[in-house]
Structures are given as structure tokens and as C-alpha cells.
Write a structure and sequence with these properties.
Blueprint lengths: L2 H9 L11 H10 L10 H12 L6 E3 L5 E3 L4 E2 L19 H4 L5 H11 L9 H6 L16
Antiparallel strand pairs: 1-2, 2-3
Helix pairs in contact: 2-3
């Protein structure tokens, strides 16, 4: 069994606990908010992105070597996309980084949509390039119903 499939299946056993969200629950939210097919990206790709960036952790904050921070389930960077009031930010999403950590995921999804609408799409995320791009991803929806 491939390791990414094993990790995916293991993560589907998680329940919404603290700030980690269940893979299938995330799929339902993404589907409801019209992320499936947005700019050509499938739910499988969004799930893979969320897993490789945050392991489905809504509240993850990571400090980068340049002093910027990555926020939330999609690890959205404070230098370009949101304002965390710690360092200079272009704030292209026009929002506070703390809003990206909200459990309802609306701000995180809105900003992620803005990011993928640019010319680089999901290539803005290095982890997506390394672990998701060009790989079979159908296993991410295994066992999930999004209707």
C-alpha cells in the first residue's frame, strides 16, 4: 500500500478535535463552498494541498526563515496574502491572518481562491508541487460523500 494512501486513510479517522478537521468533513465544506473545479482544481487537489501543508490543522501557524508566517489549513503566507501586523505585508487577500484560522474556513477558502486565480495557481504552494502535482490523487476522496 502506498504511503500517501495510508496517510490519507489514517487522516480520515480523525474527528473534528481541537483544530484538526476530518478529511471527509473538509471535502464537504470545500464542495459546499464551490471549491471543486475552481480554476480547474478538484477536491482531490484541495485535500492533498490541505494535508501536505497543515495535516488538516485549521489552527497551524508556521514561522518562516524570512520572518513571515504561514497560517491555517492552506498555510497562507503573511508576506503576500494576509496581514498579521508582525511584518510588512502586501495583503493581497485584504484580510487579517487571524481570520484565516477561523474554524468555519470561509476566510481561508476566500484567500485560497484568490491565490489560485493568479497565473501560478496551486504552484504558489511548494508542498503542492512536491507532493500533489502530477500524481494520482483519487484516493483523497475515498470513503467521502459530499452530496
Amino acid at each position: 500500500m502506498r504511503i500517501d494512501l495510508l496517510l490519507s486513510l489514517a487522516s480520515s479517522l480523525l474527528v473534528v478535535n481541537g483544530q484538526v478537521i476530518n478529511r471527509c468533513e473538509l471535502a464537504k465544506i470545500l464542495h459546499k463552498e464551490h471549491m471543486d473545479g475552481f480554476e480547474g482544481y478538484t477536491l482531490n487537489e484541495w485535500l492533498c494541498l490541505a494535508f501536505v501543508e497543515s495535516n488538516f490543522n485549521i489552527s497551524k501557524v508556521h514561522e518562516n526563515a524570512d520572518g513571515s508566517y504561514d497560517y491555517g489549513i492552506f498555510q497562507i503566507n503573511s508576506h503576500f496574502w494576509c496581514n498579521d501586523y508582525k511584518s510588512h505585508s502586501e495583503n493581497f487577500c485584504h484580510m487579517d491572518c487571524k481570520d484565516i484560522l477561523d474554524r468555519n474556513l470561509i476566510s481561508a477558502m476566500q484567500c485560497a481562491k484568490k491565490i489560485v486565480s493568479g497565473s501560478s495557481g496551486m504552484k504558489n504552494w511548494v508542498q503542492w508541487i512536491l507532493h500533489c502535482s502530477g500524481r494520482p490523487l483519487s484516493h483523497w476522496m475515498t470513503g467521502c460523500r459530499v452530496e
